[in-house]
Write a structure and sequence with these properties.
alpha+beta; five-stranded antiparallel beta sheet; three-stranded antiparallel beta sheet; binds zinc ion
């Protein structure tokens, strides 16, 4: 393990410590431990699916691209370092460039859940 420090940032009721050095995301909340998938839903659940990409250099073969519904929700991305893949949950990697959120699920079931949510 590296010796990088992980300092949480509070986003609403969610605490995020996202590390560009080791790709780890640690989740917490003002009320104690939080399920990573639930935290993702709180931060990005109303983002709009805008497309899917055949991913080059990503940790999964297909990447889903999302756009924030507005300026305030887009600011949730700022808690995460840009242009690096982060392991948001055991089965889901994420990245962003300040505008577009990319989610790369490494298991088919996660992919199906993500794509069905907007159906
Ligand atoms: Zn780290």
């Amino acid at each position: 393990m590296t010796t990088c420090e992980h300092r949480p940032v509070r986003v609403g009721r969610i605490d995020v410590a996202a590390c560009a050095d080791c790709g780890v995301v640690e989740w917490g909340s003002a009320f104690g431990p939080v399920d990573p998938a639930e935290a993702l839903t709180v931060l990005f659940g109303n983002f709009e699916l805008i497309g899917r990409l055949e991913a080059l250099g990503a940790p999964a073969p297909v990447v889903l691209a999302y756009r924030a519904p507005g300026f305030r929700k887009r600011a949730n991305l700022d808690a995460f370092p840009r242009r690096t893949w982060l392991r948001a949950t055991p089965d889901l990697w994420m990245s962003h460039d300040g505008e577009t959120l990319l989610l790369a699920p490494t298991r088919e079931i996660v992919f199906e859940n993500l794509t069905r949510r907007r159906a």
